[in-house]
TrEMBL record:
GO terms for cellular component: membrane. It is found in: Membrane. The keyword Transmembrane applies. The lineage of its organism: Eukaryota, Viridiplantae, Streptophyta, Embryophyta, Tracheophyta. Belongs to the multi antimicrobial extrusion (MATE) (TC 2.A.66.1) family. It is a multi-pass membrane protein. It holds the Pfam family MatE. Keywords: Membrane, Transmembrane, Transmembrane helix. It comes from Aegilops tauschii subsp. strangulata. GO terms for molecular function: antiporter activity; xenobiotic transmembrane transporter activity. This is Protein DETOXIFICATION.
């Protein structure tokens, strides 16, 4: 889970040392590449949920068929996103950034077009990773993503700092590392006895089954992604320096929030067996939920503290521009407050996904998005304050947490 945000953070750190303008361009660039990728997390959730449930019922042949079907869907979406990036990339970035920001649009488009080559590999790798996690195999994906992070880090330093390719070099390093990670995760599936390179066209009935799980998750992830995209969109109207400071902080935030994702994945991998499996045990499921929430609270405090100290005391790791540092420091308090609750939210959401209580999850997230969007646009238009925009993010995170808790009361 840490790999994607880590890659973006490495890009931010390397680019931030060379150009504040290109650092600002990473904002819309990563929205286009990374945030859109998060929308396809419904493939990940559907894969881990279906595979874990099938294996809990001792049906390995069904699990193999489900993986092959989801791999085909992922490949289809990946090719579609590659074509979408090539055809509509400039138009989307212009609409997002504003037609007056020509230099930012040009740099962001360079970044998005290069990373667009990796779309098929990214989505296929996402399904392969989730299938492994659904089988309770974390080591295979860990090795693949560790290798990808090393390739990305070394590539960024060589292409950006040594060769001077700037934002294009960062994009090439990230793209290559994502393709390598996807190939390694497919190989890991093969080693587990699954036919990873076997793609099966789904039937209408199978598409409906996937849709039942994926549609509410799609609404949930789209709401989150759209809100974070609107947060960056609001920052674009405040100038390149403000956008650069926001880009650094939102990348660190994403890097810190993924520490809660293993809690969500743990719930999705172990809960189905306790809720639906042959050895059904609801008492164990409740105990696991309590443990995950407690771990989430501790993780939130720890990650929030460490994640705040780094940009506060060591901003030179990300940029040498003092004006950008000032913008970073303006949002430290809301940034810390948002981080506190995030891991606990992940554990609660993972339990809802495992129990397939998807309608409540999608409805509550849709309500949070609607209210958060209204407040965000109001703050942007009336006050033009990055700090207030981040306080709206705090509101979004804490209301999500409250609504998830209400489901269990």
């Amino acid at each position: 889970w840490i790999c994607g945000p880590l890659m973006s953070l490495i890009d931010t750190m390397v680019i931030g040392q060379t150009s504040s303008l290109q650092l600002a361009a990473l904002g819309p660039g990563t929205v286009f590449c990374d945030y859109l990728c998060y929308i396809f997390m419904f493939l990940s959730v559907a894969t881990s949920n279906m595979v874990a449930t099938s294996l809990a019922n001792k049906d390995e042949e069904l699990a193999q068929h489900q993986v092959s079907t989801l791999l085909f869907i992922a490949l289809t979406f990946g090719i579609g996103m590659f074509l979408f990036t090539k055809i509509f990339g400039v138009q989307v970035l212009t609409a997002f950034t504003g037609s007056k920001n020509h230099e930012i649009i040009s740099a962001a488009n360079t970044y998005a077009q290069i990373r667009g080559f990796a779309w098929p590999a990214v989505l296929v790798g996402l399904v392969a990773q989730s299938a492994s996690l659904g089988m309770k195999d974390a080591w295979g994906p860990l090795k693949a993503l560790a290798a990808a992070s090393v390739i990305n880090g070394v590539g960024d330093i060589f292409l950006c700092s040594v060769c001077g390719y700037g934002i294009a070099g960062a994009a090439w390093a990230t793209m290559v590392s994502q393709i390598v990670a996807a190939f390694m995760m497919m190989q890991n599936l093969n080693s587990r006895g699954f036919r990873a390179f076997s793609f099966t066209i789904p039937s209408t009935r199978e598409l409906l089954q996937i849709f039942e799980i994926a549609a509410p998750v799609f609404v949930t992830m789209t709401s989150k992604v759209a809100f974070y995209a609107l947060l960056t969109y609001s920052a674009t109207s405040m100038g390149a320096i403000t956008l650069a400071g926001h880009q650094v902080m939102v990348n660190i935030l994403c890097m810190c929030t993924v520490w809660g994702e293993p809690l969500s994945q743990t719930a999705q991998s172990f809960m189905p067996e306790m809720i639906y499996g042959a050895n059904r045990n609801l008492m164990k499921a409740r105990m696991l939920l309590k443990s995950l929430v407690m771990i989430g609270a501790i993780a939130g405090l720890t990650v929030g503290t460490v994640g705040t100290i780094v940009p506060w005391l060591f901003p030179s790791l990300f940029t040498n521009d003092l004006l950008v540092v000032q913008q970073m420091h303006k949002v430290l308090i809301p940034y810390f407050t948002a981080l506190l609750v995030t891991p606990s939210v992940h554990s609660l959401e993972g339990t809802l996904l495992a129990g397939r209580d998807l309608r409540y999850l999608s409805q509550s997230m849709g309500a949070c998005f609607s209210i958060g969007t209204f407040l965000l646009l109001l703050v942007r238009d009336k006050f033009s304050s990055l700090t207030l925009c981040w306080w709206v993010l705090v509101f979004f995170q804490w209301v999500c947490s409250f609504l998830c808790i209400m489901c269990y009361i």
